[in-house]
Amino acid sequence: MKTKSQNAKTNIEISVKIGIYLSEIYNYIENIFQKLVEKLNRINNFKKCKK
């Protein structure tokens, strides 16, 4: 049987791992959106040049 402090430590470790995982997902999604914005800006610049 684990003691309460061991359980608390395990819960904190799990929470930290989840937090790190979520921040990695957030960074990945943010990266994708930045690339999309860059592509849209290039398309807009191209359209402006053609006019």
Notable traits:
51 residues; mainly alpha; 1 helix; rod-shaped
How would you explain this protein's 3D organization?
The protein has 51 residues and is mostly helical. The protein has one helix and no strands. It is rod-shaped and about 75 Å long. The model has no long low-confidence stretch (mean pLDDT 93).
What would you say about this model in short?
The protein has 51 residues and is mainly alpha-helical.
Q: What is the terminal separation in angstroms?
A: 74 Å
How many separate structural domains? 1
Oligomeric state of the chains in view: single chain
Element pattern in H and E: H
Q: Uncertain runs with pLDDT below 50, 5 residues or more? A: none
The structural class is: mainly alpha
Strand content: under 5%
Estimate the global geometry from the Cα principal axes: rod-shaped
Number of helices: 1
Radius of gyration: 22 Å
**What is the arithmetic mean of pLDDT?**
93
How many DSSP-defined strands?
0
Report helical residue fraction. Answer: over 70%
How would a textbook summarize the main sheet? Answer: none
